[in-house]
Amino acid sequence: MSVYVTVGSTGFDDLVKEVCTRSFLQSLAKRGFRKLCVQCGSSEDLFVPPRTESATFGIAIESFDYTSSPQRFIEQADLVICHAGTGSILEALHSRKPAIVVVNRRLMDDHQSEIAQELSARGYVVATEASGLAEAVANGSYSKLVPYPNADPQPIGEILDEETSL
């Protein structure tokens, strides 16, 4: 099983550092994960995973800064861990993959926590901060998430017809 971690279009130092920790890697291994792929963004210099197989608990680890096709990595993953940016959350939800959403409280006005908490309350994602990521994996609550409903394009089409009618 594999995990894809994404920080999106910028960086997220706390998340990148957390996915290199012993406690996080051990939580993944205990849940049966054997591959970790991390999109680091501008935090790539902070991505310093352990170098020995015993220190990584047998997890194969790869990383890169950016990709033009994040959907490819999401589709290959069994679990998506992403920053709480709307674009990354929607990509994970639309892929129908379980998602752990990590809030970056260092951002201005803490806007990410609102959407993450609302989606978590509805059972679509698990919301946490970077410091709680290992526990969020360990407790396995991501396996009990409900699928995000498919969007119905009908209302948008009706509104456009109504607004453009003469």
What can you see in these coordinates?
The mean pLDDT is 89. The protein is α/β, with parallel strands linked by helices and 166 residues long. It is 36% helix and 17% strand. The protein has a 6-stranded parallel sheet with strand order 3-2-1-4-5-6. The chain is built from 7 helices and 6 strands. The termini are far apart. It has helices spanning 13-18, 22-30, 70-76, 86-94, 111-121, 133-138, 154-164; strands at 2-6, 35-39, 60-64, 79-83, 99-103, 126-129.
Helix percent band: 25-40%
What is the tally of beta strands?
A: 6
Task: Describe the largest sheet.
Answer: 6 strands, parallel
For the residues shown, what is the average pLDDT? 89
- Given helix and strand content, the structural type is alpha/beta
Which radius of gyration do the C-alpha atoms yield?
A: 17 Å
* Spatial gap, N to C terminus: 55 Å
- The share of residues in extended strands comes to 15-25%
Q: Which regions contain 5 or more consecutive residues with pLDDT less than 50?
A: none
Order of helices and strands: EHHEEHEHEHEHH
Question: What is the topology, as strand order, of the major beta sheet?
Answer: 3-2-1-4-5-6
Give me the number of helical elements: 7
Which geometry do the CA atoms define? globular
How does the SSE layout of this entry go?
Blueprint: E1 2-6, H1 13-18, H2 22-30, E2 35-39, E3 60-64, H3 70-76, E4 79-83, H4 86-94, E5 99-103, H5 111-121, E6 126-129, H6 133-138, H7 154-164
Parallel strand pairs: 1-2, 1-4, 2-3, 4-5, 5-6
